[in-house]
Amino acid sequence: MNKFKAYRIHSNPNEIHSGFEMLELNDLTSGNVIIKSIYSSINYKDALAATGQSKILKKSPLVGGIDVSGVIESSEDNHYQRGNKVLICGSGLSEVRDGGYAQYVRIPGQYIMKLPPGISLYEAMAIGTAGFTAALAIDQMQTNGQSPDQGPILVTGATGGVGSYAIDLLSNLGFKVIALTGKRDQDDYLHGLGASEIVYSKALFMGDRALEKGLWAGAIDCVGGELLSWLTRTVHPLGNIAVIGLTGGTNINTTVMPFILRGINLLGINSADSSPVLRKKIWHRLATDLKPQYINKIVTQEISFEQLPEMFDAYLQGQIIGRTIIKF
């Protein structure tokens, strides 16, 4: 095989730099399956990794990109044959093994999933880690007893990829969804995904009592920090808060009162390390009862591979709405 283009990240204690390089297969981390990449996507985590704003890489150098869909080029794994359409989300990509920002990916077969029936290569990346994470959060909330008749669900960071899919999926299940955002010019977008109401973060009065008035039956939080602290004080008794993001900070400041007096639950959502069995379950749901209704609205940009480096700053500055798809 000739050399191919990859977006590679070099990280050391003193500096980080990333950019396009021409690689050979033997330059990639080990694996028994070769995939020809067709689509990838950009997640906030990808921007953190590429710019060094957070320590994502556990080894260096690595090809970036935590998501990819494509076609099997060759396989030494009996579960896969040349021509199979597959996807990978998370599973250590761009953390401990080379990721999806390359024209070819080499990876152990255990981390690959065949496309579920009813999902295309494009849709797999339109959904990607963002949609998978939203679906995983909803699945965990339902397992913990969340149902539409208990009241509304608040979704924070609502215009991002995870937030957008959370609104889409929850509303399709019959939940009343309230979107919380800092962007006052995105009302049409959020209502179009199924949000019944919109709350603006800059207008919030969070208070400082151990328990504030209960406002939501549950929440999917993509922000963290002070906002998550406030959510613990404003969720109804027995409500679930799915904790996903950290754009607003990594620390929370709360008391035991919401837990021992209201019985609320914080559900940590770690999509990157989901087991193969759980991944298969969630992707099956994404192809059936949880299939997004508004993929074409949530995907707001489709770019070429060459345009990838131009996008990271916009992600870090919170300027991106929905999802950005990369076409190889």
Description:
The chain is an alpha/beta fold. It folds into two domains: 4-115 and 298-327, Medium-chain alcohol dehydrogenases, catalytic domain (Quinone Oxidoreductase, Chain A, domain 1, Alpha-Beta Complex); 129-268, NAD(P)-binding Rossmann-like Domain (Rossmann fold, 3-Layer(aba) Sandwich), CATH 3.40.50. Helix content is 26%, strand content 27%. Strand 9, helix 3 (161-172) and strand 10 (177-181) form a beta-alpha-beta unit. The longest helix has 23 residues, at 121-143. The protein starts with a strand and ends with a strand.
Element layout with pairings:
Elements lengths: L3 E8 L4 E8 L9 E10 L1 H8 L10 E2 L3 E9 L9 E5 L14 E4 L5 E2 L6 H23 L9 E3 L5 H12 L4 E5 L5 H7 L3 E4 L15 E6 L3 H10 E9 L13 H5 L3 E4 L7 H12 L7 H4 E6 L7 H5 L6 E5 L1
Parallel strand pairs: 9-10, 9-12, 10-11, 12-13, 13-14, 15-16
Antiparallel strand pairs: 1-2, 1-4, 3-5, 3-7, 3-16, 5-6, 6-8
What percent of the residues sit in helical stretches (DSSP H or I)?
Answer: 25-40%
CATH superfamily of the largest domain: Medium-chain alcohol dehydrogenases, catalytic domain
| Low-confidence sequence ranges | none
Cα separation of the termini: 17 Å
Calculate the mean pLDDT score and round it.
96
Q: Strand fraction band?
A: 25-35%
Q: Based on the structure given, which CATH architecture of the largest domain is correct?
A: Alpha-Beta Complex
DSSP summary: helix tally: 9
> What Rg is obtained from the alpha carbons, in whole angstroms?
20 Å
**Strand tally, please?**
16
- What order do the helices and strands follow? EEEHEEEEEHEHEHEEHEHEHHEHE
Work out the count of structural domains.
2
Which of globular, elongated, flat, extended, rod-shaped describes the shape? globular
SS-based class = alpha/beta
